[in-house]
């Protein structure tokens, strides 16, 4: 059940009560930097170029500029906050911050920036890790998701939301637009178990692995199919927006590896995107996998290694995992006809 604390609870006081001092300091810095990013995003077309030329991936000049701005805003905001270094989706190499810092931050400063032109939701994804002793090194970031001290997302939508965990459940703060201060609006968020919504980019159906094709086909058959109920497809094009919706309304998100060049091992950054969301979702009672295993158990091989990702309500993710584990049935083996074992 989602818990609403007393009106007036502020983020700083909440962190002081619920997080260790080092993590509270880093999260407060991330929250402050996200206000800087939100101001720039809110300006929209007033900063010019939002409807200008698109890049090779469909990202406008302004979207790329916002990506760069958000990166710089978060790196600057983390200076003096006990963070030794940052790995960002916007830089190939890690960025040193404070030499005496005891924490590391991995982040995607502006997820879904290709949505900027269309005035659709974008967000920030972040993860906080311990910094091992010794000189700053990229290898320090190569820790499994289970090692995260904190993680969260910032959603720049109709209101700005800061959803985070320090390993003791999920809390959400909302930004008061008049005072630019954060107020806690939920302190024990739980993903609803029941939902008819699922999120995947169906334009890539022909490229998906067989288990995903079979799972989605069963959903699309609706009440006439093996699941016996109708489902609703959602796709925003920004993982952070999908994650927040699932935290609030339930459902499941799939971004599988597929047959396209460059997508064979997945497309999302393990450290900067997938692990933070997986930690957040698990702390809200959900689950996250790469298809075959719990995502937080994956050992990263490099700071920008890519991964497939499935996350959402636990029962839904576990069902998808069965499709992967028992692929022979997901292939609609004739022996079992229309109602294979996986569809019960």
Description:
- The chain has eight helices and 15 strands.
- It is α+β, with helices and mostly antiparallel strands.
- Strands 2-1-3-4-5-6-7-8 form an eight-stranded mixed β-sheet, sandwiched between helices. A five-stranded mixed β-sheet has the order 10-9-11-15-13, with helices on both faces.
- Helix 1 (11-18) packs antiparallel against helix 2 and helix 2 (21-43) runs antiparallel to helix 3 (61-78).
- It is globular.
- The protein starts with 10 loop residues before the first helix and ends in a 14-residue tail after the last helix.
Give a brief outline of the structure.
The chain has about 350 residues and is of the alpha+beta class. The protein contains 8 helices and 15 strands.
Features:
8-stranded mixed β-sheet, alpha+beta, Fructose-1,6-Bisphosphatase, Chain A, domain 1, 2 domains, 344 residues, 5-stranded mixed β-sheet, single chain, D-Maltodextrin-Binding Protein, domain 2
Question: Approximately what portion of the residues adopt beta-strand conformation?
Answer: 15-25%
How far apart the termini lie comes to 28 Å
How many domains, as an integer? 2
Structural class based on helices, strands and sheet pairing? alpha+beta
Q: What's the helix-strand series?
A: HHHEEEEEEEEEHEHEEHEEEHH
Q: Give the number of DSSP strands.
A: 15
Number of continuous helical runs: 8
If you compute it from the alpha carbons, what radius of gyration comes out, rounded to the nearest whole angstrom?
A: 20 Å
Task: Give the averaged pLDDT, no decimals.
Answer: 91
By CATH reckoning, the class of the largest domain would read Alpha Beta
Could you say what the CATH architecture of the largest domain is? 2-Layer Sandwich
Largest sheet, spatial ordering of strands? 2-1-3-4-5-6-7-8
Low-pLDDT stretches are 52-58, 332-341
Identify the overall geometry.
globular
| CATH domain fold name of the largest domain | Fructose-1,6-Bisphosphatase, Chain A, domain 1
Query: What kind of sheet is the major sheet?
Result: 8 strands, mixed
Task: Specify the CATH homologous superfamily of the largest domain.
Answer: Fructose-1,6-Bisphosphatase, subunit A, domain 1
Helix content: 25-40%
């Amino acid at each position: 059940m989602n818990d609403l604390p007393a009106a007036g609870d502020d983020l700083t006081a909440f962190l002081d009560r619920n997080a260790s001092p080092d993590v509270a300091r880093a999260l407060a810095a991330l929250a402050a930097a996200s206000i800087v990013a939100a101001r720039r995003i809110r300006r929209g077309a007033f900063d010019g170029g939002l409807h200008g030329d698109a890049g090779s991936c469909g990202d406008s000049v302004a979207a790329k500029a916002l990506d760069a701005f958000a990166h710089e805003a978060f790196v600057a905001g983390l200076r003096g906050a006990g963070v030794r270094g940052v790995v960002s989706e916007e830089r190939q190499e890690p960025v040193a911050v404070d030499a005496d810092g005891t924490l590391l931050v991995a982040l995607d400063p502006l997820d879904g920036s290709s949505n900027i032109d269309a005035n659709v939701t974008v967000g920030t994804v972040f993860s906080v890790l311990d910094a091992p002793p010794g000189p700053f090194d990229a290898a320090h970031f190569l820790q499994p998701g289970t090692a995260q001290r904190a993680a969260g997302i910032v959603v720049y939508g109709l209101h700005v939301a800061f959803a985070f965990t320090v390993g003791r459940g999920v809390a959400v703060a909302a930004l008061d637009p008049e005072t630019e201060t954060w107020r806690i609006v939920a302190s024990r968020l739980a993903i609803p178990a029941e939902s008819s919504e699922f999120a995947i980019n169906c334009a890539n159906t022909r490229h998906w692995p067989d288990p995903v094709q079979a799972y989605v086909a069963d959903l699309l058959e609706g009440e006439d199919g093996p699941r016996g109920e109708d489902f609703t497809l959602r796709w925003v094009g920004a993982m952070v927006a999908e994650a927040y919706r699932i935290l609030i309304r339930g459902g499941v998100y799939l971004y599988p590896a597929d047959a396209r060049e460059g997508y064979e091992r997945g497309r999302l950054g393990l450290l900067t995107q997938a692990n933070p969301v997986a930690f957040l979702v698990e702390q809200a009672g959900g689950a996250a996998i790469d298809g075959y295993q719990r995502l937080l158990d994956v050992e990263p091989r490099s700071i920008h290694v890519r991964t497939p990702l499935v996350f959402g309500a636990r029962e839904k993710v576990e069902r998808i995992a069965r499709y992967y584990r028992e692929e022979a049935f997901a292939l609609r083996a004739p022996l079992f006809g229309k109602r294979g074992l996986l569809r019960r």
